[in-house]
């Protein structure tokens, strides 16, 4: 593989402490994380619609980054698994969580992970640079680890000691804390990785955009590729971590294989790679899986009898489907098929990886309890619970102007019992 080299001094000051004295005194009552594998946490990377832009898991709880309240800035939170208690990840007891110079929790991240001892995240700076920071699990002692230059807004990932990031439309890997100028080119055209110049600081539809993934000894990435006939299709590539060329292993199948769906022939609605298979849901279609070695594609479950349109999240042993629907056009009431956001939904169907229906979980009790629920957004699932956001805002009038009050609630439903818990509310 090609390697781009740049002087270390011009690019970063590795592990440079950024003293946040006001946030370093004391500490949150967060248990010390036990050993956490440096494997990419697949089921933590499925949030849709920006509700949670970064999530990682320890044995004791979850760390996440989001902004679901009116006028709030993105913040880091910690959620205890056992109690469901959510805490803003700031060690200053009297902090208002409004000043990024004094509050360690006030940060908008592009990627979030932990090695068990420290929490790491990628932050976008005002000049477009993307920097990796670390801090203790209780939110103190923030340090700059490395500068990725003007890397893309495509979410970087961390896996087995390396950070994978996109710059100038190409994919690179660099050791955590190392010199981005020595980054290894994985896919695309070498364009001096780690330089402070170049890169695309905002979303540019003309650039190739990546969804990065990893499973064991293999790196995967999904790119929307323009084919020879001029059509575009989500295309999956793989590359062994030990080195070698990236190769195409899958592309979104055509309607002759899987029938019609919302974005027929272009994009897969939701997908998940594990153990050499890609599992995918086609909104307006069904659950499928493809063998990435043989190319064989089989239907796992016919879901159109449950919902014609929906959204899904996956884990290493479950497929979860919410029976929501596309947004309605406010002018004529028609469904906006293919739109990136859905609404409604009151039931989650849980399948195993062979397509057998395991559970049917009703979210109706939340609507009955709240009176007004505008919709749910699935976030992720673990072995015990499915986590989701509830939009429970009401329409109101203030000073003669009508609008919707913000009320987003982080919830979870126990997959075995169906018990629903409201965890944390942003109002």
In helices, the fraction of residues equals: under 10%
What is the rounded Rg?
22 Å
Strand pairing plus helix content: what structural class?
mainly beta
Q: Shape from CA axes? A: globular
Distance between the termini: 50 Å
Strand order of the largest sheet: 1-9-8-7-6
- The number of helices is 3
Question: Overview of this structure, please?
Answer:
Residues 1-26 and 193-201 have low confidence and may be disordered. This protein has 3 helices and 33 strands. A 5-stranded antiparallel beta sheet has the order 1-9-8-7-6, with no helix packed on it. A 4-stranded antiparallel beta sheet has the order 2-3-4-5, with no helix packed on it. The protein has helices at 21-24, 255-258, 364-370; strands at residues 16-17, 54-57, 61-66, 75-80, 86-88, 109-114, 118-124, 130-136, 143-147, 157-159, 162-167, 170-175, 184-187, 210-215, 218-226, 232-240, 247-251, 270-274, 277-281, 287-291, 297-301, 311-314, 319-322, 325-326, 342-343, 347-351, 357-362, 375-381, 385-391, 395-398, 401-404, 408-414, 420-426. With 427 residues, it is mostly beta strands. A hairpin with a 3-residue loop joins β6 (109-114) and β7 (118-124). Helix content is 4%, strand content 41%. The chain has a domain at 11-150.
């Amino acid at each position: 593989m090609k390697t781009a080299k740049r002087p270390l001094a011009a690019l970063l000051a590795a592990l440079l402490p950024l003293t946040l004295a006001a946030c370093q005194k004391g500490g949150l009552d967060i248990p010390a994380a036990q050993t956490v594998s440096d494997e990419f946490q697949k089921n933590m990377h499925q949030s849709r619609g920006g509700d949670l832009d970064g999530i990682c898991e320890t044995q004791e709880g979850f760390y996440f980054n989001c902004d679901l309240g009116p006028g709030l800035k993105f913040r880091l939170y910690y959620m205890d698994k056992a109690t469901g208690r959510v805490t803003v990840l700031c060690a200053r007891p009297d902090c208002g969580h409004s000043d990024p110079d004094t509050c360690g929790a006030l940060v908008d991240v592009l990627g979030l992970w932990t090695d068990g001892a420290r929490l790491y995240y990628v932050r976008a700076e005002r000049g477009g640079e993307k920097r990796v920071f670390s801090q203790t699990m209780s939110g103190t002692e923030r340090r700059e680890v490395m500068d990725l230059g003007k890397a893309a807004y495509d979410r970087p990932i961390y896996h087995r000691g390396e950070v994978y990031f996109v710059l100038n439309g190409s994919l690179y890997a660099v050791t955590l804390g190392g010199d981005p100028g020595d980054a290894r080119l994985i896919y695309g055209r070498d364009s001096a990785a780690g330089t402070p110049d170049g890169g695309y600081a905002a979303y540019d539809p003309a650039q190739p955009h990546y969804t990065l993934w990893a499973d064991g000894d293999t790196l995967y990435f999904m790119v929307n590729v323009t084919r020879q006939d001029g059509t575009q299709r989500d295309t999956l590539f793989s590359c062994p971590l030990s080195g070698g060329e990236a190769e195409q292993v899958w592309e979104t199948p055509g309607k002759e294989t899987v029938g019609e769906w919302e974005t027929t022939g272009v994009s897969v609605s939701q997908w998940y790679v594990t153990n050499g298979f890609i599992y995918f849901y086609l909104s307006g279609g069904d659950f499928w899986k493809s063998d990435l070695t043989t190319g064989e594609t089989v239907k796992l479950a016919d879901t159109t009898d449950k919902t014609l349109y929906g959204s899904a999240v996956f884990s290493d042993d479950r497929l979860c489907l919410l029976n929501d629907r596309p947004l309605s056009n406010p002018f004529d009431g028609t469904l906006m098929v293919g739109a990136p956001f859905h609404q409604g939904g009151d039931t989650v169907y849980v399948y195993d990886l062979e397509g057998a229906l395991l559970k049917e979980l009703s979210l109706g009790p939340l609507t009955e309890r709240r009176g007004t629920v505008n919709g749910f957004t699935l976030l992720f699932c673990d072995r015990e619970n499915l986590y989701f956001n509830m939009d429970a805002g009401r329409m109101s009038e203030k000073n003669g102007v009508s609008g919707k009050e913000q009320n987003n609630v982080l919830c979870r439903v126990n997959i075995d019992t169906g018990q629903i818990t409201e965890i944390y509310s942003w109002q």
